[in-house]
Every structure is written in structure tokens, then in C-alpha cells.
Amino acid sequence: MDWMNMELDEYQAVAQETDRTRLRSDDEAKLIPLLGLAGEAGQLLSEYKKRLRDGPSHEHFVDRVAEELGDILWYVANTAEKYGLSLDAIAQANLVKTKGTFGPLTAPIALDAEFEDAERFPRQFVIGFTEIRDGDRVQVRATVDGVAVGAELTDNAYSDDGYRFHDVFHIANAAVLGWSPVLRGLFKRKRRSNRLVDEVEDGGRAAVIEEGVVAAIFDYGRQHAFLEGVTDIDETLLRTVRGMCAHLEVSGQNVAAWRKAIVDGFHVWRAVVANSGGLVEANLDTQSIRYLGPPDTATTTAAADAAE
User: Fold this and answer.
1) Phi-psi region for residue 135, left (φ > 0), alpha (ψ -120 to 50) or beta?
2) Quick count: other Cβ atoms within 10 Å of Cβ 260?
3) pLDDT tens digit string along 28-47?
4) CA angle 142, 202, 197 (to 5 degrees)
């Protein structure tokens, strides 16, 4: 065999020739390469520690890194073999995942392209948010061209946290993902011409799921300074919100699009909170959401102070 032009699956097969776990029980045989993998990762870190300690005098640092990475690869191959997995398939799936996570956005997806205009999202729209104060009670009214959209909202919380402006995240979902059953309902753009799509994609369950997604995103933001200065999102959150929508049409959107919707949504939300309202523009063709400016009269709130 030409080892200089070896595919991953070929390496995996040859690596088994030096496997010494075959006489062990099945559980032990699977555990040993996992422990070896952890041990070799520790050895790699140890080499880096020596590099930090000794500096350039650690002349064989790169060679040691190569050796430890080789040992890690052997244990990875052995672990894959024990579980009946293919290194080629694992590598290909990982590239798909990483490109979908960190690569460029796919072209805008018009999930309602096959429907008539009355059942499609407008490709560009602007929503205005205005605070209405009655003593200690603060509500937010959303309007499009001066016409109210949906009910007036409060924070539904004991403290002022700005959740009354959470429709910004629905706008971000529509702009970046091309998906928002909540906003579709508020815009009266449900796809009633197709009974199944209307029931599954635009119905109550889908709307509740999106509200749950927004609540999860908002809670994550609250624990991370509402993403001030943040450009990345924890993979666990991304996996959770995508899993919640796995049976819906938005499941075709990659992780990069979800990340952009969340990060850009918080960027605009912080501006809306800081100005106690204002105009928010969505553009589905450019997959963008932006804050156009404050309302004519703005009132500072505790949430605005916290977001600054």
C-alpha cells in the first residue's frame, strides 16, 4: 500500500493492525482508545507547556506536536473502528458542519416563494416601536405604516428587562431566516391556500415554538450582557433552538444563518431598548435587520441603562 497517498479509511484499516485491545471485553476494548485519546491530548498540552516555559530552546516542539497529533489520530481511528464508523464519513460530515456553522450564508431562502403575494412576506418592511406609559406600567405598541400590529406588550416580569421589545427577534428571524410564524400571523400572511402548510408551518404550534425559541435566546442573552460586543453564540444554544424547529421548514437554514439572526437581533434590540423604541427595518433579500432611529420622544428606562 502507498502510505504517502492514503485515504482516511485506509489509514483506519491499517491502524487496526497495531490494535492491542482485541482480547479484551467489548466495553474495555471501547474504553481503552478513549482513555488513550485523552492521554495523548494531555501529552500535546504538556508539549505546549514546555514551549511556553522554555521558549525557542524547545527546538523539537513542532516535531513533538506532529508526533502527538499522530498518536491522537491513531486513537481516533481506533475509536471509530470500535463503533463501526468511517473516518472518511466522519471527516466529510465535519466539513459540512463547520462550513454550515462558520462559512458564508446561503442565498436568501424564500420559504413562501410559490404562494401568491397576499400569502408572502414583504421582502422589505419597517416596524415602529413606541412605548406607552401609564404610571409604573410600560407597554410597547408595534406599528407598520401607522397601523397597530398585534397586541401591546409588557415585560411580563417583576423587573424591567426590555422583553416588551422581543418582537425585534421575530423580525430578525423573518429577515435572516425567512421564517417567523408569529410575524406571519401578525401580518395576516398565513398560507391558507395550502391547508397542510397553514396548519403545520403557520399554525399555533409553530408560533408557540418560535416564542419558545425567542424566550430561550433572550434568556441566553440576559446571562451574557445581552451579547454586547459578542459575535459568536454557544453551540449548545444553537443546537437547542435548531432542534426545537427540526420538523419545520426553517430546518433547512444552516447554523451560520441562526447565529446571524441572533447576534443581529440583539444588536438592534439593544438600540431599541436604549432609545425606548424606534424604527426597525427588515430586508429579506439582503438577510439584514437594522435600527433606523429613535422615536420622536424617548424615555430612559432601567433596561436602557442596563443595556448601555
Assistant:
1) left
2) 20
3) 888 989 999 999 999 999 99
4) 155
